[in-house]
Design goal:
This protein has 406 residues and is α+β, with helices and mostly antiparallel strands. The chain is built from ten helices and 13 strands.
Length: 406
């Protein structure tokens, strides 16, 4: 009589979802939890590292929002021009700080900017703080910073007040924290990223990529069931044989299921292949997931590099850039710059009305020997050939912008 002793499937054992972090006990007395386990930012960061299209959109979106540098009226406010070139003690430019804020806001729906000055307002420094390290305190008036929220200790946390309040620190400086957050109904303490509805499709895109990698690692061998005849005396011996077969012949997860049974005089070990004709379904699922990711981000395919395979269409890129500029980029830039202008004006007592981010399309549509007023005329904008500011050639503006970046 044939008796089934043991069966197992290679890789079909229960494993944790790569997007879900193990819940850790959270002390609710100190902060408002960011997610059920207070580790929602870590889960979002992990997903962004594993989904290629999702990460590309976050990278490109934040780059476009950060722009190509800053411009201001240097002759009228030289202090502002100096601050643009060096915004903190790490010798970062203002664009570098804005770029990190834009990335965090695109990834987490939240961003944190630390403001440092002194009682005499003799200096100003702006530092980006990693949003994954920040949580709102229970009084909703402070931000707590900790290096590892899965192992939180109150004694290791730093507390900073929310702007416009400042508190003196041990080094004598006055510090405050600006909290940027994307509005979402029913969420009071933290913002929600714009792609929240596309988290599942980001996971699908990652898992379809992983499925293709597994097939490649298995040299596209057939999946199936391997029936092994073997006489064993106990469960432990059966387990040992199964594991040995897995290590030598199993391949990647889902490749082969091994079934061990009592053997007879004749060896009836054999392989039963499982054929599948769903390759097209997987490709369609992957393509649909990519399209849904772009929609969830409120972004555009050509600006994400998804349509380059069909040819480089500069006109379409420029058209989508113009739409993105007027619907997403300028609005995000205004949200980031408004409190920064206020901080600079109140601390350094300078006029910040001329502070603007330089936006440049990814491709050029106009020759660099055109003058500004000619370019404005070609775009259907108001122009004045007598205006001195519109007498510059586009090549001169590009050269100036490149200098301002560095």
């Amino acid at each position: 009589m044939t008796k089934k002793i043991r069966s197992t499937a290679v890789g079909l054992r229960n494993t944790s979802d790569p997007y879900i972090l193990s819940p850790m006990p959270v002390d609710n007395r100190h902060c408002w939890r960011w997610g059920d386990d207070n580790l929602f930012p870590q889960a979002l960061a992990l997903m962004a590292r594993r989904s290629t299209t999702h990460r590309r959109i976050i990278n490109d979106k934040s780059d476009y929002i950060a722009g190509k540098g800053f411009i201001c009226d240097e002759s009228a406010v030289p202090e502002l021009a100096s601050f643009i070139r060096c915004a903190n003690g790490h010798n970062e430019t203002l664009r570098q700080v804005i770029s990190k804020l834009a990335f965090d806001k695109a990834l987490f729906g939240n961003a944190f900017l630390e403001v440092v000055t002194d009682a005499r307002h003799s200096f100003l420094a702006l530092y980006h703080q990693d949003a994954s390290r920040c949580r709102l305190a229970r009084d909703s008036q402070h931000v707590l910073l900790h290096h590892d929220w899965s192992q939180f200790r109150a004694s290791e946390a730093q507390s900073l007040p929310l702007y416009p309040h400042f508190e003196e620190q041990a080094d004598g400086s006055l510090r405050s924290m600006i909290h940027y957050k994307d509005y979402e109904p029913t969420f009071d303490h933290y913002g929600v990223p714009s792609y929240i509805a596309g988290m599942n499709v980001s996971a699908i895109a990652y898992k379809t990529d992983r499925w293709n990698i597994s097939r490649l690692d298995n040299s596209f061998q057939l999946s199936g069931v391997m029936m092994l005849d073997s006489a064993v005396d106990n469960e432990a011996e059966a387990e040992r044989l199964i594991r040995l077969a897995e290590e030598k012949f199993g391949g990647k997860p889902g490749q082969v299921m091994f079934v061990l049974r009592d053997g007879s005089e004749a060896d009836n070990s054999h392989f039963i292949p499982i054929t599948s004709q769903n390759d097209g379904d997987w490709r369609d699922l992957h393509e649909q997931a990519l399209a849904d990711i772009v929609v969830a981000h409120s972004w555009f395919r050509t600006l994400s590099g998804l349509d380059y395979s069909s040819g480089f269409n500069s006109e379409r890129i420029l058209q989508e850039y113009e739409v993105a500029l007027n619907t997403v980029i300028l609005a995000e830039q205004a949200d980031l710059l408004e409190p920064i202008r206020e901080v600079i004006a109140s601390t350094l007592a300078v006029d910040c009305s001329s502070l603007e981010i330089i936006n440049r399309p990814p491709t050029r549509s106009k020759p660099i020997y055109m003058k500004v007023w000619e370019a404005r005329k070609a775009d259907g904008l108001e122009y004045d050939p007598e205006d001195e500011r519109q007498q510059f050639y586009l090549s001169e503006i590009t050269k100036y912008n490149l200098k301002s970046i560095h």
